[in-house]
Design brief:
Number of strands: 15
Radius of gyration: 22 Å
Structural class: alpha/beta
CATH architecture of the largest domain: 3-Layer(aba) Sandwich
Strand order of the largest sheet: 11-10-12-9-13
Number of helices: 10
Order of helices and strands: HHEEEEHEHEEEEEHEHEHEEEHHH
Strand content: 15-25%
């Protein structure tokens, strides 16, 4: 009887030890089984990711995944990989990752020490800073003009956090996504909308009447964008980084950048020498 009980206890311990290992299946294993890489991205954040007039999901980050990250994943798992897309917003993107609903956040997510406690970040693939969008002729020219002003920001964004902590004199209004925040600005519900400068330029370029809007102020934050993955999934991070590194080394990354941000791109935003040096420094160049 004692021997039987010992066997049962041993089996129970083995199952208990095996359960966490099974639960911690890596993303690469998941992709190898399914042949699918699921990314969380945006439908209304041009030119990074958005739905175009042909109802196609396109953008800079989607090209980076399709042309740089996906080939690296295929090489790692030894089979063709299909990219599937799901909408993610600042409040939902980390929950989508942790619940395994998506494998990779490929949007406009700033790499911060606080977020690194919850997720892994890839190499930085874009660098910008927070600014303000206002109606043309507005007296607001920068963050020092925000005392008593109503300012829209996206829920869960670093911009909202910085305004709340460093510029409490502004009346912060948070919205679930960029279209909702811009609509509030267009309808006069707020006096300014804050986001990363490049996103504001993209929004202005896609607005019905671009000349009605100005992007103002110096950067009041630094916003290095990275692709986010589940915490501790270092093999997957290594594969994602390998794809981005290959793109930076070969020049393919800069071709994709030029397509979206060059003088003839969706949103002209020429890369400065300092930003290029920042990106290349990550790979020892």
């Amino acid at each position: 009887m004692k021997r039987a009980l010992a066997v049962i206890l041993a089996l129970g311990l083995a199952v208990a030890l095996a359960a966490p290992a099974m639960a911690q299946e890596g993303t690469l294993d998941k992709i190898k089984k399914s042949g699918v890489l699921t990314i969380g991205t945006r439908t209304g954040s041009p030119p990074f990711a958005y739905i175009n007039k042909n109802n196609e999901w396109v953008g800079f980050t989607i090209d980076l995944v399709e042309q740089l990250v996906r080939p690296a994943e295929e090489k790692e798992v030894g089979r063709p990989v299909k990219v599937e897309k799901k909408e993610s917003t600042p409040p939902t993107r980390i929950p989508l990752l942790t619940s395994n609903a998506v494998d990779l956040i490929a949007g406009t997510m700033t790499d911060t020490p606080e977020r690194r406690q919850s997720v892994e970040f890839s190499l930085t693939f874009f660098y910008t800073g927070a600014q303000l969008m206002v109606k043309k002729g507005s007296p607001i020219k920068g963050v020092n003009d925000l005392a008593g002003k109503r300012v829209a920001a996206q829920q869960g964004s670093t911009n909202a956090k910085i305004l709340r902590e460093k510029y409490p004199q502004a009346q912060l209004r948070e919205f679930p996504d960029q279209p909702a925040a811009f609509q509030a600005l267009a309808q006069g519900q707020v006096d300014a909308y804050t986001n990363d400068g490049i996103q504001l330029y993209g929004l202005k370029a896609k607005a019905p009447k671009p000349d009605e809007w100005d992007v103002v102020g110096d950067f009041y934050s630094e916003e290095p964008y990275g692709m986010a993955m589940r915490k501790g999934d270092l093999k997957f991070k290594s594969a994602v980084d390998a794809g981005l590194k290959t793109g930076l080394e070969s020049g393919k990354y800069f071709e994709i950048y030029e397509k979206w941000f060059g003088t003839s791109g969706e949103v002209p935003y020429p890369m400065t020498a300092n930003v290029k040096a920042y990106l290349l420094k990550q790979i020892g160049k």
